[in-house]
Amino acid sequence: MQPATLGAARLTKHSFSRSMLRKAARNGWTGRRRTFDMDELGQGEVVYEVNAGDHVLTFVGFTRVIDEAEHTDRVIGGAWEITAALVDGPVDDALMDELRANVPRQERGRFGANVLVLTRGNRSVRFFESIIGRLAAGLQPDPNDVADAGYLMRSTAFYGNGKFGMRSFEGYDVDHPVAVPYRAQMLCGWLYRELSYDVIEHCARVKGGEVAVGFDEEWRRYFGLGNATGLGLVPYAMKHPRVINAWIMIRELALADVRAMPGRPDRVAALRMWIERTQQHFASASADDAAPFLSPREIESLACDVGVALDRCSSDRPFDELYRWAEGQGTECRELVVSLLIELHEADDTEMDQLLVADEGTTIDAPGTVAETLTLLRDRFDWLDSLDLEGVDADHYWWVLSDNNEEPRRVRRSALAPEGRDLAVDVALRMHRFGQALAACAGGESIETFLVENCEHRFAFQRLITSDRRYGEPRDNVCDREHLPLQLQRFQLAMYGMDNFKPKSTDWLRVTLFQGAPRLADLADSAAMKDHAMNDGWVLPARPGQQTGTNA
């Protein structure tokens, strides 16, 4: 739970995008493009249907072209080239009219409980038109032009769980195909990525006529969906300790299982394959700087070192030996090895899905006295002692929802007083001050009396009671001057299944989702889906047409 460890996380076998595609393959989902009505600029409507057992899930997208000056990565942007919704069930004419009226309005629209996810985004300013030009001329994309992206369109939000009248997570039936946290959002993102391919090929055909071509086999799965994320992920991580615990617990269980495995030749060969794939993927990426994270070339070099270390493992438990070696090589190397080892995990996906469902409710069984409360605080939050919570920089920032857009912000306290509008994400400071107040009271006093007389500590007391999981608390002070939001952001994005981390400041970064993943048409081809989804054969693709580097 150290910030540096969370900030070195990578996607794993149990990341949400990957488990969603394995479920689709395992359960024989099928899909089709039902409607595609676009003009020559790619403006219009698209409808995709996915048959998931007894359920039909429908993606409805609306596209237009906006001026380049209106493009933004921020969630609060006012103009979008793509707006879409994932709907539970088929969409008839009446519902289509409702969606036309509301989906493009996004937060200003209103939706029924049959709408599961709302999303929006834009075309890539740098790549979209140039790739249309290449395809229209009968050519495939130039590998050198798409080096640092790996996407055609970008998304900025996937709203769900009851917002704007949509169905909440608790409203899913137990046997619903997306009744797993984030599964609906992942399905929506995957179909959004399908839209990006269809629109760009359509525009190329209109522009190039008979000369135009579609993406060939090398390119038709390479591009993912871009995403940009900012400060909003930090409050989420700080407000949901039991959810964060569930995510980390899955990682720890999988890692422990793999480390205990005997080193059978087939398992060692599988790990070598994943190491080689990692090398080739990052060797074919751009050489751009990704500070404060490692650049693709640096990750390629690390993967090479991991391969050499595996060759040197001589015990009957080589995966444990490899992990112990990685512990001495730095955080990024260790977390890369963790990601690689988890690829070997043999757990049942359904069991892992169940672990993701976290009950955030609680029946408070409070300690009776101040002394008992202080003992519990010191037990659960002993890590506070490692932070300088009395330093001049400890309370540098406060967090708030902006007045205009209700978007999380952090502001210097010296620049603007919170005036009671701050978000309760300053967990470390609150718990530290709670402990100081408890220590100054008589130990035998009842905690109820203490809270009546010190009501400012009621939040801290509630957090103490609900923080009853081992991995629920990121061990950081998000108000400190040196706090780096990118670390908590990267951890969550890796859990979603995103990669290609490209920080644009200390507060936000760009990533790619579903790069290399199967396409909608692949759902009808069980052999292709088995290869690309069930065995995760699509993960970490190398860029087509590129040499994969001297280390690969």
Strand content: 5-15%
Estimate the global geometry from the Cα principal axes: globular
Q: State the end-to-end distance.
A: 32 Å
Give the SSE string: HHEEEEHEHEHEHHHHHHHHEEHHHHEEH
What is the topology, as strand order, of the major beta sheet?
Answer: 1-2-3-4-5-6-7-11-10
| Arithmetic mean of pLDDT | 91
Low-confidence region ranges: 547-552
Secondary structure: number of strands: 11
**Overall number of structural domains:** 3
Largest sheet: 9 strands, mixed
The helix fraction, in percent, is 25-40%
Radius of gyration: 25 Å
Structural class: alpha+beta
Q: How many DSSP H or I helices?
A: 18
Short description:
With 552 residues, the chain is an alpha+beta fold. 38% of the residues lie in helices and 14% in strands. The chain is built from 18 helices and 11 strands.
Account of the 3D structure:
This protein is of the alpha+beta class. The protein folds into three domains: 3-230 and 515-522 and 529-534, no CATH class; 241-357, no CATH class; 370-466, no CATH class. The protein has helices spanning 3-6, 16-26, 93-102, 128-136, 183-208, 233-239, 241-259, 265-283, 296-312, 318-327, 331-342, 349-355, 370-380, 427-439, 447-453, 458-466, 485-496, 526-534; strands at residues 30-38, 44-52, 55-63, 82-88, 115-123, 151-159, 224-229, 397-401, 408-412, 499-503, 509-513. A nine-stranded mixed β-sheet has the order 1-2-3-4-5-6-7-11-10, with helices on both faces. The protein has a two-stranded antiparallel ribbon with strand order 8-9. A hairpin with a 5-residue loop joins strand 10 and strand 11. The radius of gyration is 25 Å and the shape is globular. The two termini are 32 Å apart.
